[in-house]
Amino acid sequence: MTTGSMDSDDADETGLATARMGRRGAPLTLIAALTLLLAAMMIGAMQLGRYPIALADIGGAMLRLFTGGAAAGQIDTVLWQIRLPRILAAVLVGAALSAAGAAYQGLFRNPLVSPDILGVSTGAGLGAVIGIFLSLPVLGIQLFAFLAGLATVALVSAIGLLVRDREPILVLVLAGVVVGSLAGAAISLLKILADPYEQLPAITFWLLGSLSSIRNGDVLSALPMILLGLVPMILLRWRINLLSLGDEEASALGLETHRLRYLIIAAATLMTASAVAIAGVVGWVGLILPHLARMLVGPNFERLLPTAMLMGACYLLLVDTLARTMASIEIPLGILTALVGAPFFLWLLVARRDGW
User: Residue 82 has what DSSP assignment?
Assistant: First the structure.
C-alpha cells in the first residue's frame, strides 16, 4: 500500500470519527443546556408567587439549611414547606410523563401516542374519585389512584395476552379504549352520586390536575416508584430501539418482543400512575414533549429519553408557575396544558404527514 493511500484511509477514518463525535456532541450539548435551563427555572420559580422571595433571601435560606442555622420565619416556611415541594413535584411529574410518553411512542411505533393510551390516567382518576367519594384522607386518595391506574393497565394487558395470536398492538389499543371508556363512565356515575357541595368540587378539581396541595411527603412517596419505572427503560434502551422496528424485525434479531413489550408497559405505567396519583390528570405532556424531543435528537431512545425528561420537567414547571401566578385564583394544570397541546396536536396532524 502506498503512502498516499494510507493517508487517504487515515483521513477517511478521521472523518468518520469526527462525524460520530459530532452526532454525539450535539445531543450532549442540548442535554447540558436543558439541565442548566431547568436549574435556572427552578431558582426563578422559587422567587415567584403571592409572597415574593428575593434571590438573596433564597441564598440565605440555603445557607441556613446546610449550616444548621435558625430558620428565618416566614421565608423558610414558604420556601421549604410550600414552594420547593411543588417545584420538585412539577419537575418529577413532567419528567415521568415525558419518559412514559417516549416509551409508549416507541413501543407502539406512533409519535401521536400518549401515556394514557392504555387507560392508566382514566383508571387512576377513577381510583381518586372513589377515594374522594369515600371521604378518605389525601394519602388514601393517592393510594387508590395509584393502585387503580396499575389495575387498569393490568386488565388491558391481560386482554392482550388472551388474544395474543392477533395483532398485539392493535389489541392493546382497542382494549385500552374500552377499559378507559368503562372507567370514564364510572367516574361520571360517581360525580352524579357525590355531594354537590363538598365532594363534587374536589373531584372536578382533581380531574383537571393540580399541584396546589403538594407537600414533601407526596414527593418522597412518588419518587421511588418513578425511579423504579425508569430503571428498565435505561437498562433496555437499545432493545426499545429494536422494538420500534416492528415485531418481525425485532424477533429476527433475537428479541423476545412479547416479554419486552409488557415489561416496558409495566415500567411506563408505574411512572404514569405515580405521577397521576400526586398531580391529578395532567394531559398532553406525555404526547407533545417526547415528540418535540424526537424532532431535536432523533428516535434513538438513548438520546431521546433524557432529552424528553428534561423538556417535560421544564415545560410542566413553567406551566405550574403560570398556574399559580397568572391569576388571583389557582388555574388547573389540565386547562393550561390543553391550551398548548391541542393546537400542537392539530399542527402534527396537518404538517407532519410523513409518518413515523
Answer: I
Closest-CA residue to 336 (of 79, 94, 115)? 94
Burial bucket for residue 327 (CB in 10 Å: 0-12, 13-18, 19+): exposed
What letter does residue 346 receive in the DSSP assignment? Answer: H
Q: Where are the domains of the chain?
A: 43-351
Determine contact, residues 121/271, Cβ cutoff 8 Å: no
**CATH code for the domain defined by 43-351:** 1.10.3470.10
Report pLDDT for 8: 46
Q: What is the pTM of this model?
A: 0.87
Give average pLDDT by consecutive 10-residue segment, the chain, 356 residues: 46 41 65 96 92 86 75 79 94 96 88 84 93 91 93 90 74 89 94 92 91 90 94 91 76 78 91 93 90 90 95 96 88 90 78 55
The size of the chain, in residues, is: 356
* Distance from C-alpha of 278 to C-alpha of 213, rounded to nearest angstrom: 9
> Which residues, 6 or more positions from 41, have their beta carbon under 8 angstroms from its beta carbon?
314, 317, 318, 321
Distance CA 247, CA 162 (A): 18
Predicted local confidence at residue 37, as pLDDT: 97
Helix (H, G, I), strand (E, B) or coil at 331: coil
∠ at Cα 335 (151, 42), nearest 5°? 90
What one-character-per-residue DSSP string does 226-288 give? HHHHHHHHHHTHHHHHHHTT-HHHHHHTT--HHHHHHHHHHHHHHHHHHHHHHH----SHHHH
Residue type, 309: M
